[in-house]
UniProtKB/TrEMBL annotation:
<dbReference type="Pfam" id="PF05974">
    <property type="entry name" value="DUF892"/>
</dbReference>
<dbReference type="InterPro" id="IPR010287">
    <property type="entry name" value="DUF892_YciF-like"/>
</dbReference>
<protein>
    <submittedName>
        <fullName>Ferritin-like domain-containing protein</fullName>
    </submittedName>
</protein>
<feature type="coiled-coil region">
    <location>
        <begin position="42"/>
        <end position="69"/>
    </location>
</feature>
<dbReference type="InterPro" id="IPR012347">
    <property type="entry name" value="Ferritin-like"/>
</dbReference>
<dbReference type="InterPro" id="IPR009078">
    <property type="entry name" value="Ferritin-like_SF"/>
</dbReference>
<keyword id="KW-0175">Coiled coil</keyword>
Length: 170
């Protein structure tokens, strides 16, 4: 594949990842505001929101290094869909569980996107981007692992709180 095509694929992937991270923020921030009885989840979400902010900066640095801009339209579109997804769970009696399942799926989606971007970066000789992309990938994998490791405890706590009439929200 010609270098220009690899570059095009790489830039498109970076723009998509930037929009994906903005979508992640639009999903996590409303969740964090609604959590009251699950401080361990709130703490982890807050941490991952900060990581996501840093991931966006890393992606912008890579795009800047390529003299490319992010895609504002993609950012807006995916942020909107993320907000709608987060809103959809607020009416569920098991909101905390649904959010956890959706977050687990999304973290794995993000990890796959970064693995793909790393492959393109290596194929195109974009070594300067690799370290930043690996940092983003490691954070996504760590969050997915935390969600996976905590689903049983979260479900157990949900059942115990539900038994006494408590919920995930105010």
């Amino acid at each position: 594949m010609p270098a220009t095509e690899i570059r095009d694929v790489f830039v498109t992937g970076l723009r998509n990842a930037h929009a994906m991270e903005n979508q992640a923020l639009s999903i996590m921030k409303p969740q964090l505001k609604r959590i009251e009885n699950y401080p361990e989840v709130a703490e982890k979400l807050d941490q991952h929101i900060r990581e996501t902010d840093a991931q966006i900066v890393r992606l912008e640095d890579i795009l800047d290094g390529l003299d490319e801009d992010k895609s504002t339209l993609k950012d807006l579109a995916l942020s909107f869909t993320g907000s709608m997804a987060a809103l959809g769970h607020t009416v569920a009696d098991d909101e905390i569980l649904k959010n956890s399942f959706a977050n687990f799926a999304f973290e794995n989606f993000e990890a796959a996107a970064y693995k793909s971007l790393l492959t393109v970066a290596e194929a195109g000789g974009y070594g300067a981007a690799v370290t930043r992309l690996q940092e983003n990938l490691a954070e996504e994998l760590a969050m997915a692992e935390w969600l996976n490791d905590n689903v049983v405890a979260l479900t157990t706590k949900f059942l115990a709180l539900r038994q006494v009439g408590e919920t995930a929200k105010v």
